[in-house]
Structures are given as C-alpha cells and as structure tokens.
Amino acid sequence: MENKKLCLALFSGSLDKLTAAGVILSGAAADDMDIDVYILLQAARAFKKEIASNKDEIKLSENSHLREEFIDSLKNLNVKEWQDFFKEVKEITNAKFHICGLAGKIWGGETLEDFIDISDDIVGISEYITAAEEADIHLFI
Amino acid sequence: MTQEELQALTVEKSVDARGTACPGPLLEAKKAIGTINSGDIMEILSADEGTKKDIPKWAGKKGHDYLGTVEESGFFKIYLKKG
User: Fold this and answer.
1) Residues 6+ apart with CB under 8 A from A59
2) Is B8 a catalytic residue?
3) Complex ipTM, two decimals?
C-alpha cells in the first residue's frame, strides 16, 4: 500500500514554530508518511547555514521576552532542537526539504550549499503546488 | 487484559522513554517495533501523559494491538503486540 503524503509549507523561521513543525513532522514520520517540506520566506533564512548555526538569530514568533524560558523548558523536557527533529524525521521516513528558490535568493542563498545539510534541493512554486495537490495532509506554518 | 495479565506478559522489547516528552516516546516506540517480530510484545515506559493516548492511537493505525496500560509510581507502561 502506498504511503500517505504530508505537504508542509514552512514559512516561519521562528524558534517556536520550527519546533512545532518538528513535532508534527515526527508524528507523520511515525506513521510512515512521505513528507515534502517547502521552505518559504522566513524559514529559508533560518535554513541558511550561518543563521542556523547562530542561535541568537532565531527568535520566538510570540512572547519574545520568554525566549530563554522556552529554550530552558525544551532542555528540561529533553525535547530536541528544531534541526535535530528534522534530521531524525529524514532518518525515519522519506522526507524531503525543498528550498524555495525566490526565498533563498532574498536571503542571499543561491545554491544548495548555502543551506543546512538536510536541504534536498532548490525548487520553484510549481513543485510546491503539485505536492500540495497530491498530499493527503497539507499544512502551512 | 487485566493489570495482572499485562504484568505477566513476556516482553520481547522494553523501551524506557521516561526521559522524553512528546513526540519522544512515540518515536522511540516507532524505532523499537522495527526490531521485533510479528506477534512479539513490546512495552513502552513513559511519564508523558499525552503518550497514554498517542501510542494506542498510533498502534491501531499501524496494525499493532494495544493490549493495555499499567500504572506505576510516577510513570506507566504501555503494552503492544506487533502486528
């Protein structure tokens, strides 16, 4: 039987929403779903190597004053950091992370090497629309 | 199954996920069940309240039998039979 498909349009580059995406994708991975994640505007910035490696660059989407408390709670609960969630998802199931070509260029990312290693390719909008059409679950974060 | 029957099961694989919050126990269960054979029993130890509903739901979708949950002091054990 063919695996179900999840398509996620990941727009946000904020720590809380990237973490939420990691949790949701983990659930999909546990269900053996095929996953396509489209890395859009703010997320493409977070996926830039120099941004992803600098924790101070990734903010909270809400309640920004609680950032340190949020990070401490994740550590205390033994919850993975967002990049580790995504890596584990790729290990468990067929998951692809597609960088939006326009978004990449906006932040100075011209080639795949400009983005963190879990990135699979740089694509145009038609790829995303096709994946969204074919998906059993389609989410926007 | 009764609590006594669950406690008496011969467990092929025990997964201690007490140190993790959601989705940690689910992912630990997902990885571990791939290491046992159909018909084998696996137990998952967790202290994450949401896991009590999460893993039985997941097991049903994946064709595994949820046998029951045993409450312990500060944690619980979920028993699954691999489908």
Assistant:
1) A14, A15, A67
2) no
3) 0.83
